[in-house]
């Protein structure tokens, strides 16, 4: 009897009358709380290292925001003297050494005193500094697009899994069938075509058929117009990830279906649907679940070009503009928010992985 067969029998005999919600309660009542607490403590050094790298990399290009601003002013015909440029750097705090700028940035984010001018104006103890390019408080700039970015990302993730997993299960259980070949071809095309090319094609077709290229997101026009404006971004951004999930889950499913424990289950008279969904799929989904954090990161910032083409008011174009103008506080804050979301996504994927796979324990040993 191999390991998978033993696991399957253990899953059957452990508590066959336990309901799903009882299993969830039992799972969260064990060592998971302690594990989450340890991981949250690990967030602090992780985010700290990310902040150092972010602040350092942003300042690697020659010059600073003042240099970029002066270049744009010279292009428009305005002249700026060296004394004026130095005064601007002093106003923005760019004349200080890198370490001094970083320490002040982190210190003000963690806690800004009550007697500071920032607190008197904004009534907040967390000062994310001033966005040079937008002329506003950094957190005000981020907050304008953070909610819609996270919301669109969540919708796209649900779309990817809702579409890819049923297709992957069908392809694995109907290997080399006509449907399997069709989905494989569509998958390869979706992975091969660049997102921005697909976006342009879909915008052209939308304009050709409806007279509307479907640019941007209709956030204030009601649910119907919003869902209509979401169709092209959903297809374009979700396609590449969907194809990757299909290939991964299909390959894992085929591997699990060919293992000895599935033959043993069939010999014992277990229903085929139960073998596929309870055992094969449960083991095959593990690599995909463990990659949730990476998927979140790629959706959050990896669709910048597509967002520019489709005129989407997401965080990606905002980060690109901050990097182009060397708006270091805005770029640093966006990357920090992204890092926090990715770390949280990895934690959630680990929890989901432990719930799906009974062989995983957080406190060590075996179940």
Task: Describe the fold and architecture.
This protein has 367 residues and is mainly alpha-helical. The protein folds into 2 domains: 39-139, no CATH class; 143-356, MetI-like fold. Helices cover 74% and strands 1% of the residues. It has 18 helices and 2 strands. The protein has a two-stranded antiparallel sheet with strand order 1-2. It starts with a helix and ends in an 11-residue tail after the last helix. The mean pLDDT is 80.
What labels would you give this structure?
367 residues, mainly alpha, MetI-like fold, 2 domains, two-stranded antiparallel ribbon, 18 helices, 74% helix, globular
Topology summary:
Layout: H1 3-14, H2 20-28, H3 32-58, H4 65-75, H5 82-92, H6 98-110, H7 117-122, E1 130-131, E2 136-137, H8 138-173, H9 178-192, H10 195-210, H11 223-257, H12 260-267, H13 272-284, H14 286-290, H15 292-301, H16 304-310, H17 315-324, H18 328-356
Antiparallel strand pairs: 1-2
Helix pairs in contact: 1-12, 3-18, 8-9, 8-11, 8-15, 8-18, 9-11, 10-11, 10-16, 11-13, 15-18, 16-17, 17-18
Write down the domain tally: 2
Query: What is CATH's topology name of the largest domain?
Result: MetI-like fold
CATH homologous superfamily (4th level) name of the largest domain = MetI-like
Q: What separation lies between the terminal Cα atoms?
A: 18 Å
Structural class estimated from helices and strands: mainly alpha
Order of helices and strands: HHHHHHHEEHHHHHHHHHHH
Query: Residue share in helices?
Result: over 70%
